[in-house]
Design a protein that fits this description.
427 residues; mainly beta; Porin; 16-stranded antiparallel barrel; two-stranded antiparallel sheet; 22 strands; signal
Length: 427
């Protein structure tokens, strides 16, 4: 669903004049289960000041924009009977199921439970945090590229308010995607520890690991320039065939002191590849990515901590709202290979391994939480990326027919900047 600029303006005006509502709508108690209804609607606008690639793809000129309904999530939740909690979520915009699972709390302890169904896997502080409270409009490259989101599976968690260990076994996503699907079956584990956990003072540390089978022996890793509506990925490994398993280890840290929050994550992913007789296309791949960000609540509110992730408060003064400013540095390296020069100075070169490119971004953001249900976001993103220009020849190499990648002897630097805006309604 596309939204015109006038439609976005009407949506913004409607949000400003709408009365405040409660953050959750309670339905009834049915069969011993207290049922409530939640929703999240987001509309985004991106303006691209392109450099090399046309990030929009719809316009032939150097500057273009796009707008779109980003999410339209509808969620039913139930508490009970007994120590059972369940959730049923659906995103009407993406036409896919969200959390669809049931949880059994052992001894009534919210930090000690079994979970069955589709849920977010135990990795990535940013992914596990609530989408409606994202610090920036686009999640970081490490989260979007290496993180494992919702998958069908089973999980067990043990801990308390200050620490926890979660393990899971998972398979595909509940909503089918056209082949190849992103991930095959696997397992994950995450440990979180908050040695300091007081009001206005939190120190969080976390470590995660996921290991899963690839689908159809193919892996492709790529990232947008921290702009969800961008039609181009500026770093891209292409299809890595002969892939057996993908393994990702991640570290995370967060520090809250009063109205300031500092947060960072690092992930390194490895793709194990088997040898099919083509040495150039059978090398294992390693790539990594990390970000560090800072957020300041100008109006003085602070964060809470629950289930190993931060919780965002409501404004102290609903009529004034909560104002935030933030800055994030985000980086990704998908290069794990070398260039083999051609036999002559004019001959094309070949690649030994994978050269997916490198990208750094700086994101400056302002957020306004107004009353209990509205959020407005404005981000400016500056991108610095580089990637070898690669094409596929009409005929393969005679000495190695399976290696069809030909490298044109130049590196493409692509350094656009992007202005992003979001209007959000949630309850």
């Amino acid at each position: 669903m596309k939204l015109s600029r006038s439609t976005l303006s009407v949506a913004l005006l409607a949000a400003l004049v709408a009365p405040a509502a409660h953050a959750e709508i309670a339905f009834d108690v049915i069969g011993g289960s207290e049922i409530s209804f939640e929703g999240l609607v987001q509309a985004d606008y991106n303006d691209f000041n392109n450099d090399f690639a046309n990030l929009n793809g719809d316009a032939p000129d150097g500057k273009s924009s796009d707008n779109e309904m980003r999410r339209a999530e509808l969620v039913l939740k139930g508490k009970g009977p007994g120590n059972i909690e369940w959730v049923l979520g659906y995103d009407a915009k993406a036409d896919k199921w969200l959390d669809v699972n049931a949880k059994y709390k052992l001894g009534g302890n919210a930090n000690h439970f079994f979970q069955l169904g589709q849920f977010k896997q135990p990795n990535s502080l940013e992914e596990l945090s609530s989408t409606k409270n994202n610090d920036f409009i686009s999640k970081s490259m490490v989260t979007n590229t290496f993180g494992i989101a919702r998958r069908l599976g089973a999980a067990y968690r043990y801990g308390d308010n200050n620490w926890g260990v979660t393990g899971s076994f998972f398979t595909r996503e509940l909503t089918e995607h056209p082949a190849p699907t992103p991930h095959g079956p696997g397992y994950g584990v995450r440990g979180n520890w908050a040695p300091i956990n007081d009001k206005g003072s939190i120190l969080h540390l976390g470590l995660s690991y996921v290991d899963y089978d690839t689908f159809q022996d193919t892996v492709r890793l790529r990232a947008r320039p921290d702009a969800d509506l961008a039609g181009q990925r500026l770093v891209d490994t292409g299809n890595m065939t002969n892939a057996d398993r993908q393994k990702t280890i991640g570290g995370e840290a967060m520090w809250v002191t009063g109205p300031v929050k500092l947060q960072g994550e690092y992930m390194k992913t490895s793709v194990d590849r088997y040898n099919n007789g083509n040495a150039l296309q059978s090398k294992d791949f390693d790539g990594d990515s990390w970000y560090v960000s800072g957020l300041w609540n100008i109006t003085g509110e602070t964060w809470g901590y629950k289930d190993g992730v931060p919780t965002t408060p409501l404004p102290d003064e609903p009529g004034r709202g909560m104002w935030q400013v933030g800055l994030r540095f985000d980086t990704m390296d998908l290069n794990d290979g070398t260039v083999i020069p051609g036999a002559t100075p004019t001959a094309a070169s070949r690649i030994d391994g994978v050269l997916g490119g490198e990208m750094d971004t700086w994101t400056l953001g302002v957020n306004w939480y107004w009353r209990s249900n509205f959020k407005f976001m404005l981000n400016y993103v500056k991108v610095d990326s580089s990637k070898y220009f690669i094409r596929t020849p009409a005929a393969p190499y005679a000495d190695n027919p399976a290696n069809n990648n030909v490298l044109v002897n130049r590196v493409v630097d692509d350094n656009p900047d992007i202005l992003e805006a979001r209007v959000q309604l949630y309850w």
